[in-house]
Amino acid sequence: MGLKKAYCRVYQWIYNIGMKVVKWKEPERLEGVDSFHSIPEILEQAGVWAPMIVTGPRIGKTGFLKDLYNDLSERSVIYDQVHPDPTISQIEEMYQIYQDHDCDSIIAIGGGSNMDAAKALAARVARPDKSLQDMKGQLKVGRQVPFFVAVPTTAGTGSETTIAAVVTDDAENHKYAINDPVLVPDYAVMDPSLTVSLPADITAATGMDALTHAVEAYLSWTYRTEETIEYCEEAVTAIMGFLPEAYEQGDSLEAREEMLIASFKAGAAFTRACVGNVHAIAHTIGGLYHVPHGLANAVVLPIVLEDYGSAVYGKLARLATLSQVACEGSEAERAKEFIRHIRQMNEHMGIPEHLPQIREEDIAQMAEWADQEANPLYPVPVIYDKKHFEEVIRKVAGK
Ligand SMILES: [Fe+2]
């Protein structure tokens, strides 16, 4: 483990130098009630006329989507069949439709899965010479993608500002990410009126996903910058303050808007500072058992934070104080209170403590995938080897 740890830290140190020369982009932000209606104008300004609207069946039936479609040129096309955990074959089907209709831009509307599908489509359009498998990992797209407008209808994934498109390999039931700054959308339209009808359980899970992004990016060993630190602190404070309200009073436009902005900031932060072992484990749970991503993160987060122990007390204590979860006591006490508060939020929102559906016979494979995803790239406070991942996954399963 000593050698592996040293290798990971050196890799991360060098990678961080490389990232300093990468051209990072942040989407133009449009915020506020009814900002959604500005989309035709945005497209016109960008000089594109034939957008493919990518969304799921639930949004496909809504009035606001029909209104948007009517406001766009007759060359627009809607694809409303994205399902959770979009697969490679589905993205190939979308790519065919995009070509058949001679589209020139993409409007992604929805939560994480819809955004992932649309961004993977964008990568495919930019690189017709490469399969999605070929673009797995870092910086493999490398070419301009079509003009891209992201309209989140959940507050959690931060996908409207990230470099990642997560896809599921149907053959292996395994998720992986395509990461490239070219996949950062041109515009993020954050209209809280689109999130008020979100069911409470999805509000809870996606909100905890945003919290996990902010916390993991904050704990980043080396990639964090002044800006990511500030974004994480603001996001954690807003989520601790407004997620319970968004969960309890879904129609609170203030809570919904605060959550959209927090989710955006957490997304922008982890795009630069990275996520960590929580996500590495949660992705294996999502791939194998189709547990929603945010729910898996919500369950794994306090278990991993507890497992990190004293390595994270200082940073968690600061988050606890800023978000007024715990303002007194030693660093260790405030950090433990912060973890306890996450568990309380989970319980209050009906999120279980464990995921007993995790089968013992799958744990070794899950640990291997998590190890491959996290190491050597993720700048985690404590580097896990395969055995350590297995132990933590067993705790997540409640075994
Ligand atoms: Fe996430």
Can you describe this structure?
The chain is α/β, with parallel strands linked by helices. The protein has two domains: 2-18 and 198-397, Dehydroquinate synthase-like, alpha domain (Up-down Bundle), CATH 1.20.1090; 32-194, 3-Layer(aba) Sandwich (Rossmann fold). The chain has helices spanning 2-21, 39-46, 57-60, 63-71, 88-100, 112-126, 200-218, 226-248, 253-273, 277-289, 293-308, 313-322, 331-348, 363-374, 386-397, and strands spanning 28-31, 51-54, 77-79, 105-110, 137-138, 147-152, 164-169, 174-179, 187-190. A six-stranded parallel beta sheet has the order 1-9-6-4-2-3, with helices on both faces. The longest helix has 23 residues, at 226-248. The two termini are 25 Å apart. The relative contact order is 0.11. The structure holds fe (ii) ion. Fe (ii) ion binds at residues 209, 212-213, 279, 293, 297.
